[in-house]
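Record pair follows.
FIRST:
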Amino acid sequence: MKRGKKEPIEVVCPKCRYTEIIYLPIEDLPRCPECKTQMLISELLDEGKSY
C-alpha cells in the first residue's frame, strides 16, 4: 500500500536512547547525533493521539 504523503515516525537510539521524529519516505534510518549508532523505529506516528 502506497500513501501519498510523508509519514512521521519516532526513531530511538538503542545505545543512548536519544529520540527524534523523522518523516518517511527516506532511504535509510539516520544515525544518532550523540553516539553515531544506527537508530531504530520506536513508534509509527500516523494515528492521532490525545494526552
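SECOND:
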Amino acid sequence: MDIDFSEIKENISDYMNEKPHVFIIIALICVLFVLGLVILFIQSSPPKVQEQEVEEFVADEQIMGPNEPIIEKDYYPFRTTENKWSDEELNTFFTYPDAKAVSQLESVNDKIVDDITGAAP
C-alpha cells in the first residue's frame, strides 16, 4: 500500500482554489488545535524542581527551649479569684440607676426594636 503524496497535494491545491475561505477556516482550526495541544502538554508537565544545596545547621551554644509553665492538668473547670471586692468597695463604686435613666434606656431600646421590626409583616 503506497501513499502517493503528489495526489494528496494536488487534491489539497484543487480544494484550496475552489473554496479558499473554507480552506483557510479549516487550516486555522487545525493550527489552533495543534497549538492547544502543545500548550496543554506544556501546562500538564510537572514543574522542574531545582535542588538547592542546604548547609547543615551547627549550633554555637546549647539550644534553649522556652520555659514551660507547670501545669498539673489540661483543663481547669473554674478559676480561683484571689482579690474580691468587699461590700464596702462595691457600695463605693456601684450606684443603682435612677428611674429617669431606666426610662431613657427603655425608650431607646424600644426605638431600636421598632426600627428592626417596623418593616416586618
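COMMENT: The chain has four helices and no strands.
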